[in-house]
Amino acid sequence: MNEDLKIAQEAKLEDIYAIAEKAGIDRSYVIPFGNDKAKIDSRIQETLKDKPNGKLILVTAINPTPAGEGKSTTTIGLADGLSRLGKKTIACLREPSLGPVFGLKGGAAGGGYAQVVPMEAINLHFTGDMHAITTANNLIAAVLDNSIYQGNPLNIDPEKVVWTRCMDMNDRTLRSITIAQDKKTNGVERKDHFVITVATEVMAVLCLSRDIRDFQERISRCIVAYTYEGRPVTVKDLDVDGAAAVVMREAIMPNLVQTLEHTPVLIHGGPFANIAHGCNSIIATKTAMKLADYVVTEAGFGADLGAEKFLDIKCRLAGLDPDAVVIVATIRALKMHGGVEKENLGEENVEAMLAGAANLQKHIESIKAFHLPYIVAINKFTTDTQKEIDALFDWCNEHGHPVRLSEGWAKGGEGTINLANAAADMCKEPNSFAPIYDADEPITDKIEKIAKTIYGASDVEYSDEAKEKIKIFITNGWDHLPICMAKTPLSLTDDAKIKGRPEGFAIHVRDLSVSAGAGFVVVFTGSIMTMPGLPKEPAAVHMGIDEAGNSYGIF
Asked: Active-site residue numbers?
């Protein structure tokens, strides 16, 4: 059995009411789902509104590789480390998507002795949020096509429908489909496609809403299609915003669970960072900041995606001022960025690791562009040699980067005490945090600031279709929205094969879309897709239930 899963299954969990008490949540606001997980009633926000905010620590990373970075593991370990220091701490994480769980990852709740539990439930159906988001999205899609079929009173051009159906699974066959085939009673035949649930605007709206009323207002503004005259048609025009809110009434509430060391964790929302904005919900983060002295949260993938969107989109829209940033790197991943193949990572290679450190350097520069204090966390693997560790520490010291070893996977909170002390000290430092662009700047200026400042690109090239979209967005007033870049997470460029820190490259913008409800413009670069596919050997083929009734393969 996988060691992570075995550790999680053997863990002794505290009753969820005890975890709520530790977090400062009155039991009247706890809606239990069994003994080990719960929803937190939205009414709690009113009781907390006058309390001061705790410190907010963001955990980000270098560009991910198959070697592993351990951002979630570090986030959980750091929260446990702060708790061991006697600081009231809550971690805020995203909900895993079933697509990656059954595809590449196998799970996303940390690892080793730095895990969130009940791990199996969190990775699977949890409290049903993903199902609610999927249902709300597909309800809107069904009403939209029904309106076209029932006389088309809104004069929708079937070839200009932009709202797609979704499912929380990687299925490349649904990227391009034809609906309503064979019979006229099936509806109006047209081309369509699916996106994965975590890439939907419903997910983004959930994560950026203040409450259920704000959710309904935002979802009502979502654009579903255009008329033959080019006028945008919204969810409000379909009169289905109220029904979508009804579906999401419980999903809007954050979920309470615990780490292996019983530190409270709020898990809520899970937008992908390579397609959407990659952060957990504003509701969860703000609730945690009212309850705790320290809140540790993560943003998806590397600092070029998740952290940039956390700082330029989430913090801007929520009025958040982060206090510190932890940048996670592993010696294994740095060696891959330095040119080492995965099968050779077990061999000591200081030279390749130092070459790969250029990728870490770029992400550090990106965080510094937001004027925030930072620290490098080296997430230790058992295969790391002392010579490699010493060389990376020397590199950080030579370049003036604060650094600590993180051993949460092997030792839990005990292995992150030094990192926790340093992070707490950073939170005492004054900072002048600011997004890297003003939302009112021209669209192209905002895109180019992200591409050049965060990715290190020398130029941005636009397809003819992208240029036309920009003109339409300016006409409709959408040019004043923040930018959400859709880009491969595996490289600073828009080409997943290019590792390290390349220079002199261009970012290729092929298309744009507006998420009017979420409140940002999505910019598609390279060949990024909104519906992932499964690998040749999906993680799902190694999962099952043994004779004792225990699941295996989820990790």
From this structure: 71, 73, 94, 105, 273, 301, 381, 409
